[in-house]
Amino acid sequence: MPRLTAAVLLFAGLSACATTPVDPAASANVACPTEKLAFTREAGCRNDGAVELCLPAGDAALLARVQALAPGARALASRGRAACDTASEVLVLLPLEARDCEARHGALTPAAWERLCRVAALPQVRTLVPTWYE
Fold this sequence. Notes:
By secondary structure, this protein is an alpha+beta fold. It has helices at 2-17, 24-31, 60-69, 110-120, and strands at 50-56, 74-76, 89-95, 129-130. Helix 2 (24-31) runs parallel beside helix 4. The longest helix is centred in the first third of the chain and has 16 residues, at 2-17. The termini are far apart.
């Protein structure tokens, strides 16, 4: 009987710690700073495979934070479509893969949208724009 009691107590304790699952798309819709995005979720894949933003130059910790939120993000010394000030900013490309899009040049998946919303929520980010190569 003592074993059963310990198992029941363990189960009850772990159940109390459980959290209600959160729908990533719903949470992104509530908290996403859409005013910083030059596209909608429905048109989020209308680009040449990436979106871009500007970050303050020399802030390795901030770049690392963006890379943690959006793996594959890389900094370049260019103005880009985001119109970075090359004297004080770096251009950061956030690549999008086929799995991030519901269709070619279509909507972003909820997970990809949430990822971009988290990047846009950083106070140092002014805007995210689609990448177009010429």
